[in-house]
Amino acid sequence: MHPLDPLTFAAVPLRTARLDLEPLRVGHAPEMAVALADPALYDFIGGTPMSESELRARYTRLLAGPAEAGSAAWCNWVLRLHGDAPRRGEAVGTVQATVMHDGAEIAWVVGTPWQGRGLAREAAGALADWLRGRGVPSLVAHVHPGHHASAAVAAAAGLTPTEVFQDGERRWESPLRPDRQEPRRRPS
Predict the structure, then answer these.
(1) Contact predicate 158/137, CB 8 Å
(2) How do residues 139-165 score in pLDDT, each as one tens digit?
(3) Which of 115, 159, 156 is nearest to 136 (CA)?
């Protein structure tokens, strides 16, 4: 099996039953500053809400990609409600994948007002399916051990918990395809 070429990966529009996953743009910053403004959102993931200008700067960095060209692809999406959903058209969160030569690390966040509706599960599942459909052999996520909702999202995306912890978060990973020898190890 040849390693993945991260340069072949870029965020593309994805759609689920209730969400449009839009490739991240700097122009998403104003509405994402509102969607991610609740300080309680950061209880498990750390940090504090970012202002619009801070998000613009962050999104600019994310869109530029990693400093070491070709080492990874940073794929980021904004989640937007569509269809007949109440508050349709609103940006409600993000999903992301860091695609490397041997797999991808995924993450998700849904703003507090939209939590408890299965939106993170739906978005992370769509992301995992897209990555697997592109031949990504293994997926990894890191989840705070007390964050039961995120653990359920990881499980729904086909990941299982390991006994490995990094920065206080449990590593979850997908089963390896038979042609892979061992899981990717995240650098310390």
Answers:
(1) no
(2) 999 999 999 999 999 999 999 999 999
(3) 159
Give the type of residue at 137. P
The model carries a pTM of 0.89
How far is the C-alpha of 184 from the C-alpha of 103, rounded, in Å? Answer: 7
Q: Which helix or strand (DSSP H or E) is residue 82 part of?
A: none
Instruction: List the beta bridge partners of residue 108.
Output: 95
Residue found under tokens 């209730």: 18
The answer to whether 98 and 34 are in contact (CB under 8 A) is no
